[in-house]
Amino acid sequence: MSLALPAPRARTLSPVLPVVAVVALLALPVSPGGEGGAGPADALSALVVLFCVVRLLRQRRRPLSRTAAVVLGLPVAGLALAAMGASSPDAGITGLGRYLQVFVLVPAAVLLLIRDRSDFRLLAWSFVGLAGWEGAVGVHQYVTGTGASYRGETIRAVGTFGPQDVMGMATVVSFGLVCAVGLALGRGPVRRRAVAAACALALLLPLALSFSRGAWIATAVTCSAQLVLAGLRRALRTGAAVVAAGVVLVGGFGVGTAMLQERLSSITQVTDAPDRSVTDRYTMWEAALGMWRDRPLTGVGLKGFPEHRDTHASLALSAGSDTDGAGAGFRRQPLLSPHNMYLLVLGEQGLVGLLALAGGWLALLVCALRGLVRVRGARAPGLDCALVACGLLVWQLTDFLYADIGGPSTVLTAVCLGLAGWWALVGGAGRGEALPR
User: Fold this and answer.
1) Residues whose CB falls within 8 Å of the CB of residue 160, separated by 6 or more in sequence, listed in order
2) Buried (b) or exposed (e) across 11-44, using 16+ Cβ within 10 A?
3) Average pLDDT over every residue of 263-270
4) How far is Cα 93 from Cα 114, in angstroms, rounded to an integer?
5) Which of 116, 137, 163, 213 has the fewest CB atoms within 10 Å around its CB?
6) Mean of the pLDDT values across residues 104-114?
């Protein structure tokens, strides 16, 4: 009789780990003076898509349900039409590849690589970890005066993204904060919820020091929506804790500097006495609307906004924005987008492209909310995943009102759409725990 013990069953590594690696690569510093285009994370995201395709071929199973294929594939028709109307073949191919990467291919790959709620939470915690790292770098920049230039002082927290992408750190920190709030409001273990709540409170400081009004507004709207969706009683308790933390930060640690208070008060003054950045943004919005009026259905073509900007912009538009600090020298950065994703799509792709893209985003949000209502009403597990998915969608759709894609952090938008898409199209429908490992 053999006394050999049976070998332990090997644990299968999660297929979502390559996506976690994409998130981790965003922690690498951007080279000073870079153009803010594609980076290592974008290259790895392409390999993730290839890995997903190979995995599907080996498993020999249908990759997407009919609903998922329609929702994720809806933008393709508008993008192809806009690519054919581009000013040059190079611009059309480059723009088509970028849009397919961010809004179709990477989200679909992330959706297919997530097996269950454990994989979903792993990816959400990777967002929190990246936000913590970038936030720590940003706070150090503010304290030591080594950040990006703001009002003549190098105090703006930009993390590892540099002054050429001042919204990068604010976006990453906002995503991490939204994920942390969703994990804290769920029905998981008390210790996990407490850690998530502590992370959310800690991320408020670097978000404030980013001086990004758009990120502030989107985060406030999203966290308020998450609190309401989690339940009124819990919303009141959490709201009181946030107010108390704000009092400690402002009163105890002196976070409420004059510049920060001035930046906060300027949110309500964008129409009465707008600063130069707000004036430029309004002017570019008018330029995008002018392009749409010229070609209402198909727009001026992908990558066509810079070429047609001066034709439709008024004389109020400045030559560009100044960037300095955070390890890079002074530079005049041209204004090549309207800083409004909806108007950018409307101007370059027309009504066809806007309805296709925004229609897919709205469908994801509706499906995600339906899944949240289902798990909350039945008190089923997965409320934290639902709150994270709905929160990421609400934040992105709100932020698109005064931001667009561009820079190294753009790949994180694609991962967010895939994360939210899994809950909306798989996990929220009750199919997220029966996938083969």
Assistant:
1) 27, 28, 29, 30, 134, 137, 169
2) eeebbbebbbebbebbeeebeeebebebbebbeb
3) 56
4) 30
5) 213
6) 94
% of the chain surpassing 70 pLDDT = 79
168, 41 contact by CB (below 8 A): no
Nearest to 20 by CA among 85, 152, 84, 113: 113
Per-residue pLDDT tens over the stretch 271-325: 555 566 777 788 888 889 999 998 888 888 888 888 888 787 776 666 566 565 5
Residue 289 carries which side chain, given as an amino acid letter? L
Q: Which of 85, 84, 64 is nearest to 74 (CA)?
A: 64
Reading across the β-sheet that carries 321-325, which strands appear in turn?
153-156, 148-150, 321-325, 328-333
pLDDT above 90 covers a percentage of the chain that reads 39
145-167 per-position pLDDT tens digit: 888 877 777 788 888 888 778 88
Amino acid at 218: A
> Which DSSP state fits 18?
H
Helices 106-113/17-25 angle, 10° precision: 130
SS3 label, residue 156? strand
281, 316 Cβ separation under 8 angstroms: no
Least confident of 196-205, 257-266, 361-370: 257-266
Cα separation, 363 vs 256, in Å, equals 40
Nearest to 290 by CA among 309, 307, 312: 312
Q: Delimit the domains of the chain by residue range.
A: 17-27+38-273+334-429
Chain-centroid distance, C-alpha 108: 16
pLDDT in tens, 17-30: 999 999 999 998 87
Cα–Cα distances (Å) from 397 to 4, 124, 347, 361, 417, in that order, read: 59, 19, 18, 8, 11
HEC profile of 227-275:
HHHHCHHHHHHHHHHHHHHHHHHHHHCCCCCHHHHHHHHHHHHCCCCCC
CA distance 234 to 244: 15
The encoded tokens of residue 62 equal 């249908």
**Other beta carbons within 10 Å of 141:** 25
Query: How many angstroms separate the CA atoms of 96 and 77, rounded?
Result: 11
Which tens digits make up the pLDDT trace of 34-79?
A: 555 568 899 999 999 999 999 988 887 777 888 888 898 888 988 9
